[in-house]
Amino acid sequence: MAPRPYWKGYLKLSLVTCAVSLTPATSDREKIRFHTINRETGNRVRSRYVDAETGKPVPDEDEVRGYETEEGKYVTFEDEELEAVGLDSTRTIDIDEFVPADSIDWVWFDKPYYLMPDDEVAQEAFAVIREAMAATNTVGISRLVLSRRERAVLLQPRDKGIVLWTLRYGDEVRDAKDIFGNLENKKVESRLVSLIETLIQDLTKTWDPEMVQDPVQERLKEIIESKQKKRKKPAQRKKTKEDEPEPPDNVISIMDALKRSITEEKKRSR
What we know:
Low-confidence stretches: none
Strand content: 25-35%
CATH topology of the domain at 7-29 and 85-171: Ku70, Chain: A, Domain 2
Structural class: alpha+beta
Helix content: 25-40%
Number of helices: 6
């Protein structure tokens, strides 16, 4: 069953407009979530906002957002004031500029969504915009309000649809030069690089989503199932010597370690 659209509105490029829908490309629905339970009664514990000074619960109508200007002093905002700061239209993705597809680094990408036409009438205009971006190897830059927050977004053609990425803001991304700038430009032996290339080739496989399965989630599901059936939880496998990483041996050279690695990988592949 296809998930319901998260957002509906319009995609606009100059005078070309079409109805579109937005669906998250990722989901955490299958993740196991825990609630806080009262051990004594077995009932769920619910959190409540309380006044930090009086300790008394605060009614919903008295809760307001505030920005701390100095210790203990706040500038408060009503919901209407925050909404007024956003875009005039929260239902239109207006593409007003394009950039080369390979000019924006991965670190700016935040969360992906699938964008698609919302009805038959919109399909032609949507396809024209998508195919034009693909032909020119460009991506569109726009802005959109999601969850009451204005976001910069990138539109990237993919297959029959468009992937919309929310982008991180400039103050959220650290410059790589600040981190890597002090690293020494170490020269390496070409034969060592050649051995690493051989090892990479031996370890290269076709991408499979199974490579990123979450073992903790699977283990939790087993424990939950066993508790539901009132069984003992599955015994944890004891670590063996094979599981323990070998302590580093400074006597062995990088060359010897690489040669051993390549030999071991060839044995496994057989």
